[in-house]
Amino acid sequence: MTGISDFTSAATTSHTSPEGHLPLAGLKVVDLTLARAGPTAVRHLADWGADVIRVEQPLAPAGSPAMEDVVGRERGSDYQNLHRNKRSLRLNLKNPDGLAVLMDLVKNADVVIENMRPMVKHRLGIAYEDLSRINPRLIYGSISGFGQTGPYRDRPGFDHIAQGMTGLMSVTGIPGGGPLRTGIAVGDLTAGNMLALNIMMALYERERTGRGRWVHTSLMESLLFMLDFQATRWLVDKEVPRSVGNEHPTAIPTDVFPTLDGHVTMSAPTSRMWPKLCEVIDKPHWAHKSEWSTRDGRSANRVEIHARIAEVTRTKPAHYWIERLNAVGVTCGPIYTMDQVFADEQVKVLGMAAPVEHPVLGKMHLLASPLNFDGVPRRIRRATPDGGTDAGRILRELGYSEEKISELSRNGVC
């Protein structure tokens, strides 16, 4: 394991704090998360100025298999993107001395975030009731796979499983092609985003009450919420939604259409857009066909409508339809590969590829926060540190002596 002495130079370097102008400056966060859902929540707070201390597991003893997060290697792209703007401390929470260090961190923290299975945090003695006793103002945020109560509470929860159990896979894919997961970890990401919102609500409430609160969500709850109109089609209408591929289940026409040089995605389902689409593709009479003039009529005739539109769109290149249709207020866009996404002029203007300098990896670009505060520059202040990089500095801030820090290192606590 890397010793504390190896961190001396990093620890004596002043922690970057041009954060005073950021909205979450002064907020102290202890990050106990792993994988993707929890770190997604923490990233929102870190990106906007919170002082986040990431508490990581100790390194595996020599000769034993290396511990690796499910998001990959410490210096890999995914890990770097998830854990930027944080400081790092390794702690053995199974050691009483390591647990004592965590409690010292918690005493002056505003927020603790974890995504352990419920039984794990209780076994370690770091559940909300444990930590709130030493800090009644603490906001404690949790993400689990299936919720903090119920028969599945202690099951391990992965995005892939949540996509299946919430019905998302059943409405994704080509009709007849079987269930299909989405191309991103949408359950993890949604749970993380929801927990960040939940934490900010709890912090606002604390301004009035002076007391903290346990706030939590799960992959199952968050992803079910994202099923939105598909879920309510069952809850209200008792209709079981099915997969419709690139089409929209209720808004017609919406689909991917062929062009002379590729494809475009297009949607013109409203009473305003549909006639305009008909004009642009030189089929104005379609807008007046009685069986196609209403939303329900177009839904009933979706197969024919989409086929007829495709006959026209395949005669011109993609840019022709994108320009002509958007000019009259009909939504139409290209289908990019990831390299094309970041070459697009609008993406460049939005600054979604944010530069950062890593001490070993050099200059790289990571995905910027999608949030905007007018007048506040959106940037990544600090690259993701190697595990334990900031141990010395953090322990000194807690008032630990050099002798105590060395002792903790020798004993494999941090």
From TrEMBL:
InterPro entries, A to Z: CoA-transferase_III_domain (IPR050483), CoA-Trfase_fam_III (IPR003673), CoA-Trfase_III_dom3_sf (IPR044855), CoA-Trfase_III_dom_1_sf (IPR023606)
Entry annotated with the keyword DNA-binding: no
Species name: Cupriavidus basilensis
Keyword Transferase: yes
Molecular functions per Gene Ontology: transferase activity
Renumbered residue ranges of the record's region Disordered: 1-22
Lineage summary: Bacteria, Pseudomonadati, Pseudomonadota, Betaproteobacteria, Burkholderiales
Keyword annotations from UniProtKB, A to Z: Transferase
Biased composition (Polar residues): 1-17
Pfam family, one: CoA_transf_3
Name under which the protein is recorded: CoA transferase
